[in-house]
Amino acid sequence: MPMDAGNNGKQRPQDKFDLLAKEQGYRSRAAFKLLQLDTLFRFLPTARAVLDLCAAPGGWVQVAVSRAAPGAFVVGVDLAPIRPIRGALSLKEDITASARCGAAVRRLMDSRGVASFEVVLHDGVGRKKKGGNRSVCGGTSASAAQEATATQSALVMDAVRLATMFLAPNGTFITKFFRCQDYKAIMFCLKQLFERVHLSRPVASRSTPAEIYVICLRYKAPANIQPELLDLKHLHLLSVDAEKSKR
Ligand SMILES: C[S@@+](CC[C@H](N)C(=O)[O-])C[C@H]1O[C@@H](n2cnc3c(N)ncnc32)[C@H](O)[C@@H]1O
Prior knowledge:
By secondary structure, the chain is α/β, with parallel strands linked by helices. 38% of the residues lie in helices and 23% in strands. The protein has helices at 16-24, 31-41, 59-67, 98-112, 142-166, 183-193, 232-246, and strands spanning 3-5, 11-13, 49-53, 73-78, 88-92, 117-122, 167-178, 194-200, 211-219. Strand 1 and strand 2 form a beta hairpin. Residues 27-28, 30-31, 54-60, 78-80, 94-96, 123-127, 155 line the site of S-adenosylmethionine.
């Protein structure tokens, strides 16, 4: 069976989506996840501007260019350089440095006269720290798994922070997520910011790790967002309080 390098650099067997991606010219099998999500929720066809956070090698950017409104402004951001894709722009930035990354995105928007994005996508996988345990994709021990999910949750919150900076009212935010101890806290945050929040697991998702996608529809665009709402520590407390008050 042919093998591919996974996110943690380990060889993993190729499956039908790897082969389909090669056949159809997509840079990653992940492209099929976005195609499936968009087929279910139809957020791309009306989008005039799409921001893809953690976009390399660019499979989701390719899908965004092909499915969004003709001539849409599509921007991919990643720590790694993204080879040019016709119809899209890219930025080499770290989304955890939200002020710097946000300023770079804003400069690009200003240069094209774009005020906001109708869709913000996030398919990031937290990278392991130097000398640390393995990433979320390869963690085996309990402490490795805990460290990996903490990194992943923090990355999701960085993506949410950037989404709140740029999303248009009624916009859509999609993020990858791994079920973990932060699940309720992050869902609490998303439910405050969006009218509808759905979970989906595209068939192109691998079974390990147990990834899931959160589809957040109709951004409420609040005029002020309390910093606590974007802070995981506070979110844990807020979500516990909200559950207590429901009882
Ligand atoms: C699963 S890949 C994304 C695949 C992409 N959706 C596609 O279709 O090709 C995850 C990406 O997250 C990126 N990433 C992880 N941490 C990041 C960070 N702090 N800032 C920007 N990109 C990051 C990695 O470099 C990697 O390219």
